[in-house]
Amino acid sequence: MSFAQPSGLSGPSPVWHPFTQHALAPEPPVVVRGRGAWLETAEGGRILDAISSWWVITHGHCHPRIVEAIRAQAGQLDQVIFAGHTHPAAEALARRLVHAAPEGLDHVFFSDSGSTSVEVALKMAAGFWRHSGAARTRILALEHGYHGDTIGTMSAGARGIYNEAYAPFLFEVTRLPFPEPGREGETLAALEAACREAPAALVLEPLVLGAGGMRMYPPWVLSEMAALCARNGVLLIADEVMTGFGRTGTLFACTQAGVVPDILCLSKGLTGGSLPLAATLCRREIFDAHYSADRTRTFFHSSSFTANPIACAAALANLDIWDAEDVAGRVAALGALQEERLAPFRDDRRFRHVRRLGTITALDLAVEDAGYLAGIGPRLAALFRERGLLLRPLGNTIYVLPPYCVTAEELDLVYAAIAEAADLAGAP
Ligand SMILES: *Cc1c(COP(=O)(O)O)cnc(C)c1O
């Protein structure tokens, strides 16, 4: 494929990159190819994708089965309006998602990003209570949570430098303290107290808070929170946008806690990370509350590319891979590999909170200057770039979240650089 520029179209790039301070950021590498756990640049360099290109790639870049499914669907039907129309890929995918998800989630609403899957979930919850005739509108959320970058999902997420400028546009939520080890009781007590105000829903990331610093909490806390919600009629929205499709060791994180949420949000790994697609699954009662001869009860949400056929075909190929290949075995083996690599760091005093959940590891550099804008950030980024690694620390938190095809030798490269990073930081 050629992307040659017509003459006269040279000069500085007009591209505005996400989460990038253009006044400080170095020139970005130009990535032209992806294979397995590797990215290749225009200059012929290789980058090991140790964060799965922002947590989306599951099996590896350009898995042949997914590439072939995209090719076939693109030649058949590229796009069709999804209001009043349907197509075979969406129908098949919806059935397979209902089958794969925790039992009791019977309806599937498609959108196109993690943020929109959570927006849809919040609107479903709001619609459910309105059409049930109950004045429940308050949303509960976990401290340090992240649910996306739209106005609604920023409202539910943690407040910080990344949304300070938009604070006047955000709605209030009731925030529960994060269940720190040994202080889980405080979270549960706060939830119990909040339930007395008859809130609409609790939205949370099950077992691990991603953008909030890869903070992990045990399944029993999730079970207890779900039980409190059920007892008080509060809808539980599980944001599995990052945790879904094997990340935490099981297909979905909720199942480790035996929890069936009322609403389940999926995106990132849904297409194996190849194309943008999202799905919000819900219980029958939520669909039924909108089911009426009264048109005002319609679920008023859509995006132009809802259930795009090519993206649905990629998601079906992803589910085929789970069925045809031993992905569960690969995920378990990667978890064990990650644990082995992490072991030497567990009693290294230069790191704190050395932790793992499924295929994800994380460790905090023991530096004074923590937080998202920590001065150490750019230096770490430079070191990892020099070593040919795609790692993107969250402040002083370094995490490794690789595609499931990564090998032991490739992980060795990653952890060698992490050891170097500690020297660089001059941590105690
Ligand atoms: C990434 C993420 C989102 C947002 O997904 P986008 O596709 O970036 O909009 C929402 N929730 C969680 C838990 C995420 O990790």
Account of the 3D structure:
- The protein is α/β, with parallel strands linked by helices and 428 residues long.
- It is 35% helix and 16% strand.
- The chain is built from 12 helices and 16 strands.
- The strands form 4 sheets. Strands 4-12-11-10-7-5-6 form a 7-stranded mixed β-sheet, with helices on both faces.
- A hairpin with a 2-residue loop joins strand 13 and strand 14.
- Helix 2 (64-74) packs antiparallel against helix 9 and helix 6 packs parallel to helix 7 (219-231).
- The chain is globular and about 60 Å long.
- Pyridoxal-5'-phosphate (PLP) binds next to helix 4.
List the helices and strands and how they pair.
Elements: E1 31-35, E2 38-41, E3 46-49, H1 52-55, H2 64-74, H3 88-100, E4 105-111, H4 114-131, E5 139-142, H5 151-156, E6 174-176, H6 184-195, E7 201-204, E8 208-209, E9 215-216, H7 219-231, E10 235-239, E11 263-266, E12 278-283, H8 284-290, H9 309-324, H10 327-346, E13 351-357, E14 360-365, H11 376-386, E15 389-390, E16 397-400, H12 408-425
Parallel strand pairs: 3-15, 5-6, 5-7, 7-10, 10-11
Antiparallel strand pairs: 1-2, 2-3, 4-12, 8-9, 11-12, 13-14, 14-16
Helix pairs in contact: 2-9, 3-9, 4-8, 6-7, 10-12, 11-12
The structure holds pyridoxal-5'-phosphate.
